[in-house]
Amino acid sequence: RAKSVLEDARLAIARLAGVKRENVVFTSGATEANNMAIRGHVQALAESGRALSSIHILYLPSAHASVMESIQSLERYGVLAEPLVITDGAVDLNALKSQIRTETALVAVDVVCGETGTRYAVRDIRRVLDAARKESRAGRIMIFADASQAPFVESFELTHLGADLLSLDAQKVGGVRGIGALIRANVSVPLSPIMHGGGQEDGLRPGTEQPALAAAFAIALQEANATRGSFIAHATEQQTRLLTTLAKAIPDMVVNEGKEHVPHILNVSFPGRDTDYAVMILSKEGYAVSTKSACETNEEGSRAVELLTGDRERARSTLRISWGPSTKERELSGFARVLIRTINFLDSNPL
Question: Which of helix, strand or coil describes residue 105?
């Protein structure tokens, strides 16, 4: 029965992603899936006889720590890595054309940046890579897309995105924390296990599987897919009202966003204020917001905002605010009142 529950969940997610059932690998979350995608792909290339020094990776410099540190670990073994150029809040496609080498094997990019809500045009990157491949007659350059923040607002079907590998995380879509998935377009995408100890998940991920978590994960993704249009419309209205309220009360507030952005993740800066202190005050009032990724607690300020804006002061004074389908209008209104009161308190009591 447990096996049936697990495989039904796998099939449901595979259908949403537009792949076969066996191409969905359950993980403990997006962090593990990101590691598996990057390190597992490079390891597979190395096992096929390719020298690590002949493998070139392009990556989004504002990516999650699990992506950045996976790449940095590979650099220590000789893998070549280079950040994508960001211009006007988007990947610079003209710069990308000049960055592609004969050694380029993988491009790692977010579908949606979890800190700023910036949406990246993964499909446009695919077109550039395919054109370069056609000109050079080289092999396919793989795209790995971190789609953990995408399902509420974007289809994660791999052909839609043009991705070869894609990661998801249950806790980002209302599922139960502790499960995620790595999805590959087909079995021809080179991938090797980065952990060993069992034959679970077609030999790619050892460890006892979690049927109940997988079932909840699949249901959450199906609900996100079914309600995407209505959520986008409602969240857009909510963001507009929230920003209008905040801007009237705090005129020097700055919004940090890319060329395209999603409606339910809002990143704002309050220059000159200690927003870490603001987070503590808001937490006591019952509102959970952050200044940066929870996986970068040792960093001063938001790396993603600094890379997006080039402004260190804005990166040091950010608040990252997000909400989901169950968030009520009165909750956002209450949050706005408490946030305005908090900023006024900080202004009246400078440290």
Answer: strand
